[in-house]
Amino acid sequence: MKLLLPTYLLIHLLFFLTPLAYTQTKSYSGVLINSANNQPVEGATFFIGTNKTAIGTSKADGSYRFNMDYAANNVDPVAKLKIHHISYRDTVLVLKQGYQQIYLQPKANMLEEVVIQQKNINDIDIRNLVGSVYEVDIKKLSERSELDMGKLLEGQVPGLTVKFSGELGSKPEIRIRGNASFAYAQNANQPLFVMDGMIISAENFLTLNPQDFASIKVLKDAPATALYGIKAANGVIELTSKKGFHGSPDITLSLNQGITFRGERTVEMMGTTEKLAFEESIQAISTPGYRYSPSYIRRQYTNPEELERQLARGAYYLDSLQQYNTDWFRELVKPNTFQSYNLGIRGGTEKNSYFYSANYSKQGGRMPGNAINQFTARANLDYILTDRLSISLNNSFGLSTTRSQNGENNDPSTLVYALNPYETRESGKLTSYDGRSFSNLIDQFHKRSTSKRFSSSLIAHWDVLRGLNISGIIGIDYGLEEIYERIYADAFSQRNEPNNAKGFLKEGDRKNFGLTNNIRANYQRQFGDHDLYAGFNVDYYYNSWKSLEAEGKGISDDMESLSGVNASLLHGNQPKIAGNKVADKQLGFGAAMGYTFQNRYAFYASIKRDGSSMLPQEKRWNNAWSTGLGWTPSAYAFFKEQHIVTNLAFKHSIGYTASMAGINRRDIQTSFLQDNNFYGANRVLELIALPNKQLIPQQTYTANSSMDLGLFNRINLSVNRYTHITKQAIIQVPIASSNGFKSYAQNIGELQNSGIEIALSGDIIRKKSWRWNSSIAISHNKNRVNKLYGGDKLYLNARSVIPDYEVGQPLGIIYGLQSHGIHPLTGIPQYVNQQGATIDYNRPVEAHYFNNLGLSIAPYSGYFNHYIVYKNWSFTMNINFGFGGIAAYSKSYVRDAKSANYNALKGQLQQMWFEIGDENKIYPIKDLPTNINDLYQSYANNKTIYKTDFIKLNHLQLSYAINSFTGMLKYLKNPKIRLQADNLYTLRFEQDRGSLNDVLQPVLTFSLTTSF
Amino acid sequence: MNISYLIPLLLLVSACNLEVKPENEISGDAIINTIPKAESLLSQAYVSLQFSPEDYSVLTEDFQPTYLISYQIDLQQYHAWNEAVIERRTAQIWEANYNALVHLNTLLNSEPYLNSAQDKWSTLKGQALVLKAYIYFDLLQLFSKRYDPQEAGIILKESNILATNPRLTQAESLKAIENFLSEAVALLKDNNDTQIYYMQLPAAYLLQGQVALFQKKYAEAEQRIAPLLAKNKSLPQHKDEIRMLWNNSLTAQSPHVLWAYDYRTHPNNYLYYTNRNEGDYFQVNNLFSFEEQDLRATISLFKMEMKTLSGQTGVRPLFGKYRSTLQDQLERMPVMMRLTEAHFILLESLIEQNKLPEAVATLNRFFTSVGLTTIPSQQSQQSLRLRLRHEKQKEFIGEKINFLDLKRWNKSISRYLPDSNTLSVTIQASDYRWTWPIPTSERRYNTLVSQNPGWLF
After folding, report:
1. Which parts of the sequence belong to the RagB/SusD domain (chain B) (predicted)?
2. N or C terminus of chain B with fewer C-beta within 10 Å?
3. Residue A445 binned pLDDT confidence (cut-offs 50, 70, 90)
């Protein structure tokens, strides 16, 4: 708290400084540019604040120049100017002295409205002059038929990657500029999500309604993120919600109806003929293909008469199976529907404005019973209390339900690959699932997770004096996730349970509560050619998670409440309860200053000091600082004389952040877990980890250089190059097990993450009724282990012979064996080591068996977008791609003797070794000895990897704006109809033999948007 | 409205303490400051042991595999003493034992923070020391060679700070174990805690006997268990008494059980095939036949009709401790130490000291207790020795001590093919696998330790 005092003093100091720089007459010049096509805007008028005096107009080349005498005009120097043009939205802002580029947003089909420029509290103009901030095209995003924010952002931002796994509704992995921590699969690399200046949880972010937002910014480098301090080491995604405006209410309604399709078939499975032949060849006694085959029957019966009878019976049975050829993919994976209804109302008076919205959406999953229902609502209210003081109140609410209604193992998609083609929904007894019928497999397990979120923030903005403003936010973000899992008494899994223990119910609540409190004082003044900025802030974040879960058995089918479980059961069937409570606090003090000279040079520096309750007292306070330089040659006068290079700017920044990523209290302090386990009659107290008292936070150093180049006012090229170095990176390092634990947290090394992001966009055609805008972006990310303290290789598992981290190597290398095919005499796979010698299976696995096969994290990604407008028609196309990664084939659909009762990969019959002399086979003998099987199953080899390169046709949209209606429909303003297709097609260079989970469902939607 | 009111308000909210007490864990260096917390650590040490009967019994001669074993490859290979499987399983035992030790060390090192209830603390400390001795003695018997004072012994860990220690010699290890035990005996002398799931004073005496026996100090062994036998001389005499041994629950105290482990599942779970009604993966070895009048004949095993490899059914002797039918799924506490073992320690000490008449009398006392006829007093030392070994193995079928005895006695053992008395392989007494391998998780990060001979891992 000691730091609060200096902050106060500095704020007071600024009050005194203010009068020193008070001059009355200023000159202003600059250019007005159409933000959509970078064309100059002619004929826009500048008005002063409330008395609506016109003081100037822009010329044909968009330029403006005027002098302004505040005293003469009797105007407050901090009053805002309004720029008005018939075809553009009115813009209100405080003009800067000297030369300034102002972007105007074309009205297109929008209503006349005044946009009050109120921004996120940490969104400081100067930050953008030196830092790397990418603004997502929210308009395009909000028109997509997709409910998941993660999916919407995928492939939209250079350097931002989103990786999905699991069913509809599961949480994706979002990364900005790759991984900064060793533990690359965990939350340690997740960015920070900020909505209207308030920190929100990743879960809440994913269920937001994109139509509620005016902008989404992705902050990638130190100057951009430094104000968020130690929480922001992995980048920030900043959302700003829409606001009301001064004018009559604008009601927007959009209706979307669509169909979701099955999506691609990731793997082809056998048909009946091949499967029965395969069963006979593999000689699995549990399968009809072998049990009814002549070869098996002949071995069983010696009596010729009986043999004859059995042969005929077998042939008849096999014939009857041949009648069926069920395609379980088509049978189980179904098209579904997509619906989304959105209503928005915006409006207000001069003093207050409002924005309300409500959205209901429903997306059906491809498996029966799997669906997301989502309802969101928002109310944003702004009040201009005085000329200098305004407050906003933002409230948002969301309800999202994900259902699945699955097999016992909770993943019905496995059935697609397991059920045999000769089995049907009516089959009484299945071969694939012994002793069960099809109805015993589906509808066994019901799961519903409901997430309810509520967030509310109060933001105040006070223009204290000329150039000095203070703004503050108090916001809460509350999320409640309700879990419900149910097995009814008649489910297959319950058949052996005693009658009083049949039926299962689990319910749980997981709550998270976040409080954001941030106060910022900004001082911005111009002194001639010098533009100065200084700012201070104090922020405080509180976060708590609480969970409560209970489950019990023996509940009747009529009951859906925990009160119905049988509490008298014993011996493993007793009801169970579990709970968890975690909280952390962070207090920070920040200062930032910036300086620009004639808009040509910019300098920015910030420092933040944060204390976190997660760390013990002596290590509590950590720093984050950043500094950056910007140089804009195109701001020189001589540059304006030519029309080739219309924009040129360079930026460079460096920064440092101590990161809380990967740190837990248990890793530093002796901590015991006290759960509800007992030994005998005594409670147990478990030591959670071996503490490392020397542990310190990771330190991330970043450097970013960028160039923006504009040609002919038409083409824009932006190049970003960055390096992130994480020093003292933390990971759970293995230790000798006689310490009682196998690993403990340690600052182990240095990780470097560097990359380049190139984006090129521009108008290919620009005619009066014809426009074709195209953009392409490609980014490359490369990470490398720079140092490992005390060695050059790190093995996370005592058994591994291949290092998990190695100095000079990137993360995520797939090491594998060199296959030498299947031995034609034994049917056993042969592998050769690095020297070309055959591997001896009787010896333990050694490091020289393995080769670097490639990277699992694709280094290249990017997008290719087109936007074509012709008269009333417009067409949008979004393609994204990823290159350079590999993955190992899943061997799960290659069957052996033990799993032959399940359906197998198409072609396995031909490619499997069955008898001596089978040459050039891919799959080994049906039962491999365990030691060979371990090697075969656990490691990839050069023949079982494939490239994950893909080009995905993400989004296609055709829309038509209807000029006018007559009759009843004449009240509709600017109606638009749209036909769009999402996740349409993915071109993979090699077929993935993985699960259905990573395939996105294609959605075809028809929508109508209109205003009233 | 004047916003200047708001700003101090906002700052007030910020003005807070950054100490957040975690609510779902207990954190801090001096936090073990009450007896209940310290006792919870002792309980956790027992939980950490993760004792499981199958780790030992499957390796002994107690069981023969049935045809069902082919559905449980891992168990089959463990039974066949497959190196890779032994290495994997025994690594878990090592890790579990050392995890238990961390808790015991934390408990013992908390003494300065516990300033109340001196007598309660001495009981607790004594109990912790017995467990510590038990763990070290276990590690010594399992991961070191048969008794040889100069050979490598245990890795001693006395604190919970990261360290890599070398192995002591067996002589040093045994010295340490004996010291823990004698200190524990002194502390537990007046202890009136009778919780059956902790090792108490009787268990400490039995351990002392085992430690002496391990070093072939037979006179000492006899003397060590004397207080135990003096207190309760009688063996279980009636069928009900014998059955009670295996039917124990937390509330049922038996004078014959010194320590039972709170297992939280059925102790014979590892024998059950997925479809319980079809039988077990193992049957009781045909070596062990019980005469009809033997009180244990229907308790140590039970007969059941099971299918065989040829498809026909046959009657098999299935392991009967803790259950009398295959449907029995109740949780029970596996017996870890019982008084009968003290009798056998006495018997072995007498035989090895060549006090043969006393030995015959002791053996006959056992025979009488289980309803068998006694043997004549004229017996050679060797024949008595062989009889003792057979009878002890038979009495302790399915219990951990059998594996340790086989190793100590330097016995070769046989492995059979499923559903048959045909020998598949003999594990020689000299086989390197009797001494379990130092796990990779230790050796890889502790350069002071080398692998036991024979192991490639």
Report:
1. 329-455
2. N
3. confident
The closest of A90, A201, A286 to A902, measured between CA atoms, is: A286
Q: A670, B329: Cβ pair inside 8 Å?
A: no
Could you read off the pLDDT of A901-917 as tens digits, one per residue?
899 888 888 888 888 88
Give me the residue from B7, B14, B449 closest to A470, CB to CB: B7
Q: How many residues are present in chain B?
A: 457
Q: Decide: residue A931, CB within 10 A, 0-12 exposed, 13-18 middle, 19+ buried.
A: middle
Task: Find the residue in A nearest to B71 (Cα).
Answer: A898
Q: Which residues of chain B have pLDDT under 50?
A: 1, 3
| Tokens 């990261």 belong to residue | B162
Provide CATH code, domain B35-432.
1.25.40.390
A133 contact partners, CB below 8 Å, separation of at least 6: A127, A217, A218, A219, A220, A224
Interchain CB distance below 8 Å, B446 and A736: yes
- Whether residue B84 lies within 8 A of chain A, CB to CB, comes out as yes
B 203-242 residues with CB below 8 A of A?
Answer: none
Q: Do A462 and B25 touch (CB under 8 A)?
A: no
Per-residue pLDDT tens digits for A723-778: 989 899 888 888 999 999 988 888 888 989 899 999 998 888 888 788 898 989 99
Is the Cβ of B77 closer than 8 Å to some Cβ of chain A? yes
d(CA A1006, CA A644): 42
Could you say which of B28, B39, B444 has the minimum Cβ distance to residue A682?
Answer: B39
Judged against a pLDDT cut of 80, whether residue A926 lies above it is answered with yes
Average pLDDT, chain A: 82
Q: Where are the domains of chain B?
A: 35-432
> Stretch A467-479: mean pLDDT, rounded?
90
pLDDT tens digits, one per residue of A487-542: 988 888 888 788 888 899 999 999 999 999 999 898 888 888 888 889 999 999 99
- pLDDT at residue A504, rounded to an integer: 92
* pLDDT at position A19: 38
Instruction: Name the closest residue on chain B to residue A571, using Cα atoms.
Output: B331
Residue A521: closest CA among B11, B17, B15? B11
Distance between CA atoms of B394 and A841, rounded to whole angstroms?
39
* H helical segments located in A180-286: 202-206, 222-225, 272-282
- Which residue in chain B is spatially nearest to A585 when comparing CA positions? B18
Q: What pLDDT does residue A14 have?
A: 41
* All domains of chain A in start order, with CATH: 1-108 (2.60.40.1120)
Interface pTM (ipTM) of the complex?
0.89
- The nearest CA of chain B is from the CA of A150 a distance in Å of 31
**Confidence band, pLDDT 50/70/90 cuts, at residue A109:** very low
pLDDT value at residue A111 = 38
Cα angle: A422, vertex A428, A432; to 5 degrees: 50
Q: Is the model more confident about A520 or about A104?
A: A520
As a whole number of Å, the CA-based R_g of chain A is 32
Check residue A991 and give its pLDDT.
62
The predicted pLDDT at position A17 comes to 39
B100 chain-A contacts, CB cut-off 8 A: 740
Q: With an 8 Å Cβ cutoff, are B16 and A674 in contact? A: no
B43·A692 Cβ contact <8 A: no
Which secondary structure element, helix H or strand E, spans residue A464, and what is its range? strand A445-465
CB contact under 8 A, A585 and B39: no
Nearest one of A763, A752, A759, A708 to A729, comparing CA atoms: A752
**Inter-residue contact B188 to B126 (CB < 8 Å):** yes
Among A2, A739, A932, which would you mutate to test the B interface (most chain B Cβ atoms within 10 Å of its Cβ)? A739
Of B19, B27, B43, the CB nearest to A683: B43
Touching check for B10 and chain A: CB below 8 Å?
A: yes
